[in-house]
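Chain A, query sequence.
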Amino acid sequence: MTRHDEDVRLRHMLMAAREAVELSRDLSREDLARQRTTELALTKLVETVGEAASRVSKETQGRAPEIPWAQIVTMRHRLVHGYDAVDLDVLWSTVTEDLPELIAILETFLATQE
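Chain A, predicted structure.
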């Protein structure tokens, strides 16, 4: 795997996380429960973050230990395999609390790679 591939995967994580945060910006947790399309979109974006994270090499993951790689990938697995039982509270807290922090970490990490 080339460094280019790694950067692409990290940027996919960053883009999906940014999009999820932006999509939720003017919403409340209650809005999420009422808006099925928003639920589906946020679920897909969090899945994308997890899928891209799962494809980042262990070597690169080791250079960014502040990123909770295993938790991100586990979240993706839960969303994909437990599609019929998505916990909207967990999804909401992931998008509103965890992703902004992940975005900051990824932006800093990617800036050091350039």
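Residues 88-113 form the longest helix (26 residues). The chain has one domain: 3-113.
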